[in-house]
Design a protein that fits this description.
Length: 525
Amino acid sequence: MGDAPFSVVRDFGPKPELIWGSFDGDGRYDIELTVRNTATGESATSATSIDLLPLSPYGVPMVSATWHPLVFLYGAPACPAGATMKVFWQSAAGALAEAPAKPCNGNQSMNFLVAGLRAVSGYTVWHELTAGGSIEKGPVLEFITPAVDVPVAPVQVSPAAADQQGLVLQSPLGQMVVAHDLQGNVIWFYASDTSNLTRPSPGGRFLAIFQDPFLGPEHQTFRLFDLIGITLKETNAARVNEQLAAMGVREITGFHHEAREMPNGKFLVLASSERILSDIQGPGEVDVIGDTILVLDGELRVEWAWDSFDHLDPRNAAVLGEVCTPAGGGCPPFYKAPKANDWLHSNSLQLAPDGNIIVSVRHLDQILKVDYQGGAASGEVLWRFGKDGDFKVESADPWPWPSHQHDASILEDGTLLIYDNGNTRRQSDPLAQSRGQRWELDETAMTARPLLNAKLGAYAPALGSAQWLSDGSYHFNSGLIFVPPFRMEAQSIQTDASGAVILKHTTPTPVYRTFHMKDLYTPGQ
């Protein structure tokens, strides 16, 4: 738009269409499309421009429906440069919500997506303009949401959360992404060709991956999208492989488990790779699946790559000997053999407060800290947390360590938060439950002390997430619980600071991750 440089929305891939739109404001937008023949390398480019008109052409605010039945668009006239505008809305029951403030530039109209709404409900909406220390309130408008019939699994809430504000965002397996308020009402959903929502991102944006073991790397994608489902960024494994080849890095087979936005607008993404190894993890030639950590810039260019085969010893095989088949649940794509050893099965990445990367390596029962420092570091493994790792434990628990864990993260105070599935512990204790854990780490003395070891009331052998909330409580997702005789369910559990359960959302289907959020614009709470 204007003199701004072009920004990639979707990198080269096989999809023949893209639905795109912008809510950044009115004006002229330049669009460029380049098509490339993968067989010959030939390409052709076409360009056009479109003029987006203001939603409020008569100089007064307006509210309009979008193609998402539970997301509305509020538009206001341009406001003076240096001022900021925020939009508020309130339900008939009195619940108040807001969208993040935006700066005014004096030229463009101001647009806000209003989301987190119950179906068949009345709302009032208005904006507040802040300039020079004064606040000016705009006119109050009204709108009503339509009835919505979406095929999502119902949730059971216990105990009843009649007056609590907030929501639970969840990514069920094989179903659309959905958000419920704390009373269990559907207030948002995303229906598209993605396998898992990996993380919410600030400002009402979300990251997801798609993987299909029966398709090639060009079909394995990761995507950033907004509240009404518009793709903001997307790339695929084949396109990433072109860049990795130029860097001299082993190709990837696809993306799995994790993609998240970093504070600088870059993306931290987990991918898989594979090698045929001889007389390692088995006699003769064995296909072994490893992991690759990628950092992509805001234009989807690979900036940094970490290949597990270069930094970890494949002679240290998966603790429980997991093997993948082409249709195996939870396995990334692989292509070199009919079956493969699922060596690492890492499932989360985090840019830690000290600038390094935390990796949850499920099948080794370990959490790694990888030397990153903005891409200037070597990728050396700085420490391994877990049984037979680098830390000495200070605990009387006969089995304090996590095993086959999910969603490890270092909090701002340096403590480590984990969802401990407990698969290896379960081998010796058939009554063991999954746990929510928080650990105090001393990286000088290399000691670890458990601060929280919450029993969550069930055993979840797969899936899971862990979140610390701003009020000192915790949110854990037990994503796959087997209920005799043939049922599976998931539980999103809020505990107090001591680990006692205070709220539970039960869903009658497996759920990859869940997030307790203040609203759809704020990832944490």
